[in-house]
């Protein structure tokens, strides 16, 4: 009798372990970022799973006072419309340049994918929705940090306005520069995840992502994508090809 | 395996030998990748905030990224011209953080998992109390001074092949095991945006994100110094015997 129990338990344990290992190896569940059989990506997935299992999902990143606002470097893409900058997209760059010179009046943010009512928001549309202002720390993977005040509309409100479907699992951000990236639903619906159009009391400056960037406060700075163009809600993980982080060797989850 | 007479308590136990090498490997990986990460931004600060536009506590001449010229379009955020500014970086920096960070955190997982096994086994088996903690009355300035003197005169005890350590040796090992490595993990977690959102006390404990990073660096420097001293003592006291004792347990 006792032996049976032990064997059953051991079997259960082994089955559990091998399914976890299988997931880590293939990462083809659609619910997790793929690992491509790469040991580093398996470590990233382990960190992601551990955070989602162990940390309270809706805890808030620290918010600071106005006096704490610091100088902020602008790095990476600082003007998607300038062909002389290192990161320039030949197709979208000129469009961005045109929109910028029109004061972003013709800029639209489309929300599509797993939503009941796909639609395009103008800057004025976004500003009509309830706003949130937060003074938070931007922590760059390089090692530096900066504190700024961000004003924008919670992504949750925008997603709800388009009738997000229950099957939705990820939110992908497409931009006017060479990058695209995504976050999971937990971060997407977090109260501090906002589509920011204001920085330190003024319109968001171009080097910091004008007209709208996302703020993902519980991950490193690179997840707060600048120069938003299109948001796609998906049911499964999308590595976004060579525009995404994974294929260039970066961890998709950066909450560390 | 040991044919020595006695209690059977003379050699390093198997779990000590295994965890020793797993932790050694993860530590070397963490130190190497940590240095690669630091080279991306070789400036240290105190508090929550620090970047190329704010003053540094310490600048380390370990990469070309330290020559932070090439900042253009500096503009104040507010009316106050001396207040915080925005500026754009124009030059491409050295950055190996893609694999560097992922490997750092992977090795961190290995260190934490093995470290927990080591500490629990060490407490339950009495290894930490019997072998690492100085005996009562042993931790006096006079005895510490004597042991230091013996080390400086190169009067090095021949190895016992087990955990029968000298006084300075105990202090060094205990310091690494219950202070150094745990603080390394905690200061590391204090830099995590997700972990500190859940447990802000971690950030407060070390005085902020950048303070935690600075402490993390100095602990790294101290642990690397320990590693150098440790390897030096292994070599001076009998390399082959020590390595056999910590691997096959002879």
Structural description of this entry:
The complex is a heterodimer of chains A (256) and B (250). By secondary structure, chain A is of the alpha+beta class. Chain A is built from 6 helices and 11 strands. Chain A has a 5-stranded mixed beta sheet with strand order 3-2-11-6-7. In chain A, strands 4, 5, 8, 9 and 10 form a 5-stranded antiparallel beta sheet that branches. Chain A is globular and about 45 Å long. The N and C termini of chain A lie far apart (45 Å). The model of chain A is unreliable at 1-7 (pLDDT under 50). In chain B, helix 1 (14-40) runs antiparallel to helix 2, helix 1 packs antiparallel against helix 8 and helix 5 packs across helix 8 (209-246). Chain B is built from 8 helices and 4 strands. Chain B has a two-stranded antiparallel ribbon. In chain B, strands 3-4 form a two-stranded antiparallel sheet. Chain B is elongated. The relative contact order of chain B is 0.15. Chains A and B meet through helix 2, strand 1 and strand 5 of A and helix 1, strand 3, strand 4, helix 2 and helix 6 of B. Strand 1 of chain A pairs parallel with strand 4 of chain B, so a sheet runs across the interface.
């Amino acid at each position: 009798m006792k032996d049976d129990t032990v064997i059953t338990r051991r079997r259960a344990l082994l089955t559990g372990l091998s399914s976890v290992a299988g997931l880590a190896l293939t990462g083809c569940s659609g619910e997790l970022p793929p690992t491509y059989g790469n040991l580093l990506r398996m470590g990233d997935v382990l960190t992601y799973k551990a955070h989602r299992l162990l940390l309270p999902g809706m805890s808030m990143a620290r918010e600071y006072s106005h006096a704490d606002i610091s100088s902020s470097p602008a790095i990476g893409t600082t003007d998607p419309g300038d062909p002389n900058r290192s990161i320039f997209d030949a197709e979208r760059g000129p469009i961005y340049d045109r929109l910028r010179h029109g004061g972003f009046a013709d800029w639209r943010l489309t929300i599509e994918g797993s939503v009941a009512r796909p639609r395009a928001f103008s800057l004025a549309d976004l500003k009509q929705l309830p706003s949130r202002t937060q003074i938070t720390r931007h922590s760059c993977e390089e090692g530096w940090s900066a504190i700024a005040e961000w004003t924008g509309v919670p992504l949750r409100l925008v997603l709800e306005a388009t009738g997000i479907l229950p099957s939705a699992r990820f939110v992908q951000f497409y931009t006017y520069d060479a990058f695209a990236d995504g976050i999971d639903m937990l971060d997407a619906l977090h109260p501090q995840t906002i589509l920011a159009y204001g920085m330190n009391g003024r319109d968001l400056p171009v080097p910091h992502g004008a007209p709208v960037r996302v703020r993902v406060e519980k991950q490193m700075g690179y997840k707060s994508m600048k120069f938003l163009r299109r948001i796609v809600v998906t049911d499964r993980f999308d590595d976004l090809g060579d525009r995404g982080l994974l294929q260039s060797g970066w961890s998709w989850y950066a909450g560390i | 395996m040991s044919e020595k007479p006695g209690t059977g308590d003379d050699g390093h136990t198997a779990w000590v030998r295994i965890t020793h090498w797993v932790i050694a490997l993860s530590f070397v990986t963490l130190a190497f990748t940590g240095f690669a990460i630091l080279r991306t931004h070789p400036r240290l600060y105190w508090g929550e905030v620090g970047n190329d536009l704010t003053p540094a506590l310490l600048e380390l001449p370990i990469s070309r990224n330290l020559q932070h010229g090439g900042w253009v379009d500096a503009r104040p955020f507010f009316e106050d011209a001396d207040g915080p500014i925005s500026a754009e970086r124009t030059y491409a920096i050295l950055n190996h953080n893609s694999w560097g960070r992922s490997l750092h955190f992977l090795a961190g997982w290995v260190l934490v998992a093995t470290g927990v096994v080591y500490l629990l086994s060490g407490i339950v088996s009495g290894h930490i109390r019997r072998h690492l903690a100085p005996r009562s009355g042993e931790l006096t300035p006079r005895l510490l001074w004597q042991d230091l003197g013996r080390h400086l005169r190169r009067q090095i005890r021949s190895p016992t092949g087990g955990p029968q350590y000298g006084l300075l040796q105990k202090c060094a090992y205990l310091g690494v095991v219950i202070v150094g490595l745990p603080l390394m993990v905690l200061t590391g977690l204090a830099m995590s945006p997700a972990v500190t959102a859940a447990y802000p006390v971690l950030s407060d404990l070390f005085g902020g994100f950048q303070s935690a990073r600075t402490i993390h660096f100095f602990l790294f420097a101290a642990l690397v110094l320990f590693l150098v001293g440790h390897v030096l003592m292994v070599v001076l006291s009998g390399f082959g015997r020590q390595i056999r004792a910590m691997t096959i347990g002879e």
